[in-house]
């Protein structure tokens, strides 16, 4: 934070706005309508997005005085690795809507800060390339991999093997997106975020996925040798009863067979707790379940032997009128009782927000839209600064509230208002 005030002395403006409201306003202006609809948008009438922010406002920080806050610690340990601040870059798919090579730029930003970047399964750059970019900044810079559990078991295994081979520190299994939510901003524009191939690079770079596409094309051409590839993809979509409402938006110019196959197999709505036991046996990586909102599910996750959970409502993008993550955390943290790591995201946009989440029992917070807005405004530097600002404000808030260690915060630091 010193740097930012020193810049002010020299009348240098920061690269990206230092408050979320202005960051969002400027990013909206910088983005295409399609990018803004997908990234800035939420489910339904936006109630969950609003609830995430309102819940934070119902907690007030109660500062303590005269406690020597000259030295402060922001470091935390996650799965055997120390990270410099309790903050991660959340997985964000189809990022190339905001900037070409989005994931590579964000990886660069995260590596510069030394905090983990959770690679999206719906990335626009293959995980190997992002890992290489991060290694170019700092060898072994922390990276996690986020998995959407495909209907194809071999594809799941292939993605897990790739995550292991790029030395991911954990696999995050996102469980709140077995189907895409009702997102009016995208629907009203007739825009399917993946339609032009955005966000399918983990798939098209995967040998198993390419095999699946090829198999499908072969099967289709065997039946009707005279039809074109585009027509085959349409045929598959009809026979597979895929999300038809979105399919109408696919343009003819892009690799339809790959996009269509992706839509058909990227997630498995039939997933249940029974499947989870199988996953444990299939990877040596720590497993983190993302999208936990009910305390009973949190307890069940502990019983299932996973290593962590992320209390998340997907940034308010899945269910309209869902519980805010701060309200959910209030019940989940005592239910977990320190047995596994508890992370949180959705609406956590400032250092004070992170402070409140930690005081309510979270071990760390993932930041979604702020880093995407920074990216849209100023590329890798913008993504880095947006998150660096949150960390700087956290450091100040910690000290000003009379605390010296993020790992020692508890509910006594807050009052409900
Ligand atoms: C997401 N999120 C997400 N989560 C995930 O597990 N895999 C993904 O591919 C995506 N894709 C994605 C795209 C966009 C544009 C957004 C905004 C979000 C959810 C993300 O990881 C995180 O849960 C939320 O972004 C957190 O909320 P905030 O910080 O954006 O409010």
Automatic annotation (TrEMBL):
PROSITE patterns: FMN_HYDROXY_ACID_DH_1, FMN_HYDROXY_ACID_DH_2. Residues 12-417 form the FMN hydroxy acid dehydrogenase domain. Keywords: Oxidoreductase. InterPro entries: Aldolase_TIM (IPR013785), Alpha-hydoxy_acid_DH_FMN (IPR012133), FMN-dep_DH (IPR000262), FMN_HAD (IPR037396), FMN_hydac_DH_AS (IPR008259). Its cofactor is FMN. It comes from the Bacteria. Belongs to the FMN-dependent alpha-hydroxy acid dehydrogenase family. This is Alpha-hydroxy-acid oxidizing protein. It comes from Gordonia westfalica.
């Amino acid at each position: 934070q010193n740097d930012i005030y020193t810049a002010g002395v020299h009348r240098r403006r920061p690269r990206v706005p230092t408050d979320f409201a202005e960051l969002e306003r400027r990013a909206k202006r910088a983005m295409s309508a399609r990018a803004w609809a997908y990234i800035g948008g939420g489910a339904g009438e936006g109630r969950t997005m609003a609830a995430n922010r309102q819940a934070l406002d119902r907690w007030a920080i109660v500062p303590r005085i005269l406690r020597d806050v000259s030295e402060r610690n922001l470091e935390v340990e996650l799965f055997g690795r120390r990270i410099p601040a309790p903050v991660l870059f959340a997985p964000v798919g189809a990022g190339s809507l905001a900037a070409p090579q989005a994931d590579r730029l964000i990886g660069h930003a995260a590596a510069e800060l030394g905090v983990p970047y959770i690679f999206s399964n719906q990335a626009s750059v293959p995980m190997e390339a992002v890992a290489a970019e991060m290694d170019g900044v700092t060898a072994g810079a922390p990276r996690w991999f986020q998995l959407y559990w495909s209907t194809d078991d071999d594809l799941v295994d292939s993605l897990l093997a790739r995550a292991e081979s790029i030395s991911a520190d954990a696999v995050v299994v996102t469980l709140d997106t077995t189907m895409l939510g009702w997102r009016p901003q995208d629907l009203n524009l007739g825009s399917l975020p993946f339609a032009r191939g955005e966000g399918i690079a983990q798939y098209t770079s995967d040998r198993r996925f390419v095999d699946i596409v090829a198999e499908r094309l072969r099967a289709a051409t065997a039946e009707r040798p005279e039809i074109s590839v585009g027509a085959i993809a349409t045929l598959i979509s009809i026979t597979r009863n895929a999300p038809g409402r979105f399919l109408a938006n696919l343009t003819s110019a892009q690799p339809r067979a790959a996009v269509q196959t992706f839509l058909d197999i990227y997630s498995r709505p039939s997933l249940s707790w029974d499947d989870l036991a199988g996953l444990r046996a299939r990877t040596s990586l720590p497993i983190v379940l993302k999208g936990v909102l009910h305390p009973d599910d949190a307890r069940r996750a502990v019983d299932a032997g996973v290593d962590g959970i992320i209390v998340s409502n997907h940034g308010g993008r899945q269910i309209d009128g869902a519980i805010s993550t701060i309200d959910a955390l209030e019940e989940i943290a005592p239910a977990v009782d320190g047995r596994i790591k508890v992370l949180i995201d959705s609406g956590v946009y400032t250092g004070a927000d992170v402070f409140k989440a930690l005081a309510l029992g979270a071990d760390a917070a993932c930041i979604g839209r702020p880093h995407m807005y920074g990216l849209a405004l100023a590329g890798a530097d913008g993504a880095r600064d947006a998150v660096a600002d949150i960390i700087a404000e956290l450091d100040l808030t910690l000290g000003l509230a009379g605390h010296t260690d993020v790992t020692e915060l508890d509910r006594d630091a807050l009052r409900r208002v």
